[in-house]
UniProtKB/TrEMBL annotation:
Modified residues (4-aspartylphosphate): D57
Keywords: DNA-binding, Phosphoprotein, Transcription, Transcription regulation
GO molecular function, one term: DNA binding
One protein family per Pfam: GerE
Name of the protein in its database record: DNA-binding response regulator
Record-annotated Response regulatory domain positions: 6-122
Residue ranges annotated for the HTH luxR-type domain, each copy included: 152-217
Originating species: Williamsia phyllosphaerae
Family annotation (PROSITE patterns): HTH_LUXR_1, HTH_LUXR_2, RESPONSE_REGULATORY
Entries under InterPro entries matching the protein: CheY-like_superfamily, NreC/VraR/RcsB-like_REC, Sig_transdc_resp-reg_C-effctor, Sig_transdc_resp-reg_receiver, Tscrpt_reg_LuxR_C, WalR-like
Length: 222
């Protein structure tokens, strides 16, 4: 039996934290190791509690989830970060994903889906459906999309043709098994390609790969 996921809850609403605690603390596969009402002390709490995942509200009154996520990603061995929001088209969500968060969940996500999402994140898999990813990306306002496309195209050029094909498939929401079938390679090869992409580009997760492909090759994921 594997060790339980060590989870840190961060939300400025006590009732939300209480509800999450009730939903998630009943099983043996998740251990809530700490709570916070603001993003100010999240980095210290994450280190002290040795959290695997930080489940955190985006909008908080003092230090919001975006700033806290950026601080967490700067840690030597950062935990996975999953954002909670009541807004399914929040521009802060996409900024958080670009900063390295592993994904986001709406606050009304059913308990079973929430638990499954936490396990997926720890396993290194994305938790955003292609539909939700597209909705978020389509509604982002960027002050200079042309500059972003130039930057993304330059990053794409660092990849091999095989890595580009894998990156596009990731952006389309395909799982490792689906990518392997589509490209006629093994799942191990797909994982190796994704690992190389992350290392080359200094990314933390697949969501950042999807956002990069959208910026550089929007026709591939439209």
């Amino acid at each position: 039996m594997s060790d339980p996921i060590r989870l840190l809850l961060v939300d400025d609403e006590w009732l939300v934290r209480a509800g999450l605690r009730t939903m998630l603390s009943g099983g043996a596969d998740i251990e809530i190791v700490g709570e916070a009402a603001d993003g100010e002390d999240v980095s210290d709490l994450a280190v002290e509690s040795r959290a695997d995942v930080v489940l955190m509200d985006i909008r908080m009154p003092r230090v919001n989830g975006l700033v806290a996520a950026e601080r967490l990603r700067a840690l030597p061995d950062p935990p996975h970060v999953v954002m909670l929001t009541t807004f399914d088209a929040d521009d802060l969500v996409v900024r958080a994903l670009r900063a390295g968060a592993s994904g986001f969940l709406l606050k009304d996500t059913p308990p079973r889906e929430l638990i499954a999402a936490l396990h997926s994140v720890v396993a290194g898999d994305p938790i955003l459906s292609p539909q939700v990813t597209r909705r978020l990306i389509e509604q982002v306002t960027d002050p200079d999309p042309d500059e972003r496309k130039v930057r993304a195209t330059g990053q794409i050029s660092e990849l091999t043709p095989s890595e580009v094909r894998v990156a596009v498939a990731v952006a389309q929401g395909s799982s490792n098994a689906e990518i392997a079938r589509e490209l006629f390679v093994s799942i191990a090869t797909v994982k190796s390609h994704i690992s190389h992409i992350l290392d080359k580009l200094g990314f933390n997760n697949r969501v950042q790969i999807a956002l990069l492909v959208h910026d550089a090759m929007p026709d591939k994921v439209g």
